[in-house]
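Question: Send over one sample?
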Amino acid sequence: MCLVTSLAACGLIDGSDDPTRAPSTPLADETICGVFPNQDLQNTLGFDTYWYQYSTGPITNVKTGQSGDRYECYMRSNSAPFGILDVGYYIGSQVLPSAQPAVEFDDIPVEYPDTAREVAFEGVEGEGWVWTFDVSIYVAWRYDDTQVLLARLTYWGPDEDLDEQVDRLHSVLEPALARIPELASATPTRVTVPSPTPEAEDTATGADG
């Protein structure tokens, strides 16, 4: 059971070795991962989704007994300069950036002093940070009910365009952050688009275990 907010939590699929990897044609789905308008991803961010998976359900911290809700979204783009947009919403006080040690939410500005800055989202109660590290833009948000969200967008573009990409990611995340808690608390769901073949589904299930 996942205990921290991780962008690779519970062995979920990374697009680099995804057995369900689809042709490069962008998806025509109206909504991606249950909350993201595809048109906003494409027009605002320039992120053309060709594959995504999201799941929701209850979660319990086996050490503390604390219970809450879970939302995991994994998107893959075929349009440079982006490749990955992952969003994880869990209980707890930590976030786990990709390939990095877990970080306490309150320690984010200490761990990333050169790039971390406070961020706010209209209509969403809580507090947050945005920072950049390596080839990724991160956004962490702590809701008032102790649930924590972490989003990661990989970006391989020029550094001089980085601030603009941060602002665009903010615009895409803002409406989603208000909707994710409700979706996470609804009936448990697991969706993969395009639907995997039986062989690929077996591989993915094995990775989750």
Q: What stands out?
A: The helical segments are 38-45, 108-111, 162-184, 198-208.
